[in-house]
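Weekly modeling sync, notes
Attendees: S.R. (lead), two postdocs, one rotation student

Agenda item 3: backlog of single-chain predictions. S.R. asked that every request posted to the team notebook include the full sequence so nobody has to chase files. The rotation student volunteered to paste the first one in as an example of the format we agreed on. Action items at the bottom.

Example entry:
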Amino acid sequence: MSQDFHQSELIKSRGPGPFTTQRIYRRRDHSHVVWRSRDHRKGLRRAKSDKLLTFSAVLLRCIWMPRQLNWWIGVIFAAGSLLFMLGSILSLAPGLATNWSLEATQINGIFFLGSIPFTTAAYLQLFQAANAGEFSPQGNRAPRRIVWFGWFPRNIGWLSCALQFPGTVLFNVNTFDAMLPGLTWLQQDLVIWAPNFVGSVLFLASGYLAFIETCHAYWAWKPASISWWITFVNFLGCVGFMISALFAFVLPRLPSFDAVTISVAFTLIGAIGFLIGSLLMLPETAQEIRLGIS
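Predicted structure, as returned to the notebook:
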């Protein structure tokens, strides 16, 4: 154990199930420091009460923070969400697609283009979690070797990211396959629906883990926390994608209801959830990049 930990006393820890998502340490000078799993893996630092930024200052700062990886993750996720929203709207409004001279294959291409930023941001988030390093109650972070993927299954943040990343890869597969012409109903289920369904399951599991990481429990209501809102609306987006996948299953005969419209509508809901969560990551980064620990 490092000297930093010998100079600090762990007085409280909590988290859902086998995971620890919050620890409180007492230093030798009797000051307290709080470690939070999400803040640590994202490099966020809680601002002291006398240094809180005003709402307008946060909005101004979050517009351009290219040196912050968390900002890039939010921006790239937002780009993918916007493309998924555009594809969904064009699918639900065929008249609009006709005015733009877009065919079904081209609309499916928009979904494929949207899946690429999702995968990019998901990998950056996994990379970020893998390189979070060891926490020091004294505020010192020793340099460490870069890890491209890592293996930290007992770390709830890393596990959430590790589930999300292959889910986005499966979305790459199913949105690309959706552009293939002349597929039978069985082929559509095998190459489009199956990866969509598995990817949605991974997204749902990932979203719930990220949510309870901010709750420090299986459920909590924390409307004053921007991190809680980010993971909450993202989880709702994951639920939307999961429902969409359920209705996307292709049957040999058309069902009595319009399953395609329902599926696309929930894809739109899922994309809106991810867009809101992605945009909230920007002020989260702007507000929390303060040095110092409270």
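Discussion: group reviewed the output briefly. The beta strands are 8-14, 22-27, 32-36.
Action items: rotation student to repeat for the remaining queue; S.R. to check formatting next week.
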